[in-house]
Design brief:
By secondary structure, this protein is mostly beta strands. The protein is built from 1 helix and 4 strands, in the order αββββ. Strands 1-2-3-4 form a 4-stranded antiparallel β-sheet, covered by helices on one side.
Length: about 70
């Protein structure tokens, strides 16, 4: 999975949240302008990536509460 490789290699880890199925890690990938955010979900029992969702809006960041330290643009 090429996208997962790029996120883990070039992304900045920002926060983690937990769901019943496992954890979801939030990363930021820089780009010209603001860049984008990527969520990588992990299945707890199999310890493998199961979800890869990207977005540039700040609305989904509300799921992470006040624990997210955003990169400076």
């Amino acid at each position: 999975m090429v996208q997962l490789y790029w996120v883990l290699k070039y992304g900045t880890f920002l926060a983690q949240r937990w769901e019943t199925e496992g954890g979801v890690n939030l990363y930021h990938l820089p780009n010209e302008g603001r860049g984008l955010f990527v969520e990588v979900g992990y299945e707890e029992y199999e310890q493998r990536a199961v979800v890869l969702r990207s977005f540039s809006s700040s609305v989904p960041l509300e799921d992470y509460g006040h624990g997210v330290q955003l990169p400076k643009f």
